[in-house]
């Protein structure tokens, strides 16, 4: 009994096999449409949908990719890019070649939901996607097109949000950023499937790109391998896998026009407004203090109400601008405090060695110290009053002919002067010298006459009196500082702008690509 059942089962299996062979050999009719041709090519006896498309021995299957970008929008705050793209994948499947079949079908075309159950499709994914949707109103926008030679083209329309590389904010707001769209093969490694960009126009864009913070400068397609390492310790054969990868790099430059018009230009106006105080009087305390504080507060408000940027620790170039403008505004306030302090001093003439910035600012910083040094110099140049100090003073110079007025008695001094005057009047060839009487601190040097040896008084001035001084009142000094500030501040700010903008715009190679 068992033997009879076994024979019956074998007969049924053989009959079903013969029937399947007969079905595979069925030819297509001349009026077969696209779907009839597709079902004929993908019969299970001819086509295994779980096997990848065959290729030459030892040669991986090549899958070509092309991207058409409809819409692009980059956000610097979220560090991401929103895109609407049309992705096109193409490969060759020899099992779908129907060029030798007598049919009037020029190509087979249909949606994925009709073909995906009967044919092999490559499994690719985006490595850095945050969100990906296949678009469509009533049905998903995907399309499969098969040519008579077996070339397959799979097209789908997607919307995706891509995460970008960390933002480099050092050159903000003149920085450049980049973001990549990376495609990887999911199931097969590089020895079985190799992804490549199409040689002719791999990337298109509609020209209607809508970046908010950035504008697109270039798109560069690249190809390579993505390496995955298995961390499992039990891996004995191979723990390293190379998957084919394609990357489309978007390079952006920030829209700096907003920052130029809404931040840089107003800050320049505010710095220039702080110079108006130099044309106001040093005693105009209410006006100058109100103007300086208003400009400073307005500039701080301008810095706080700009476009939000990501929190970044590196020092940015706009920080250099902000600190420099703050310094120029504060410097004008400090200048007002200086000239007002000088203007409120006593209206006494100030002796200056030279009418230059060095001596004027020295007096402005430490007037009492300068006056004290001058008085000490005068005292040190005079003759000491104490007899003991006087003897030390005379022994220092060791000149017996040096005498002070106090050492000369009134009678001797008067007699010598009278005798000398009579002698000079009697002589026609000699002129009368002028005798200048000075305060006791002036030294008198006796000179012997060539004829009679009578000492004659000559005057030797102290170093302080032989030097000529300029005199200015504190009010004149404060006005002089204001006048110089009208020139120094604009020149310094112009030099800073020249260095700052040349550093930004000329060395373009320093900017990150």
From TrEMBL:
The UniProt record lists the keyword Glycoprotein: no
Domain Neurotransmitter-gated ion-channel transmembrane, first and last residues per copy: 264-501
Protein name: Neurotransmitter-gated ion-channel ligand-binding domain-containing protein
SUPFAM superfamilies: Neurotransmitter-gated ion-channel transmembrane pore, Nicotinic receptor ligand binding domain-like
Gene Ontology molecular function: chloride channel activity; extracellular ligand-gated monoatomic ion channel activity; ligand-gated monoatomic anion channel activity; transmembrane signaling receptor activity
Location of the Neurotransmitter-gated ion-channel ligand-binding domain: 47-255
Topology term for the membrane: Multi-pass membrane protein
Superkingdom as given in the UniProt entry: Eukaryota
Record Pfam families: Neur_chan_LBD (PF02931), Neur_chan_memb (PF02932)
Cellular localisation: Cell membrane; Membrane
Keyword terms, alphabetized: Cell membrane, Ion channel, Ion transport, Membrane, Signal, Transmembrane, Transmembrane helix, Transport
GO cellular component: plasma membrane
Extent of the signal sequence: none
Matches recorded under InterPro entries: GABAA/Glycine_rcpt, Neur_chan_lig-bd, Neur_chan_lig-bd_sf, Neur_channel, Neuro-gated_channel_TM_sf, Neuro_actylchol_rec, Neurotrans-gated_channel_TM
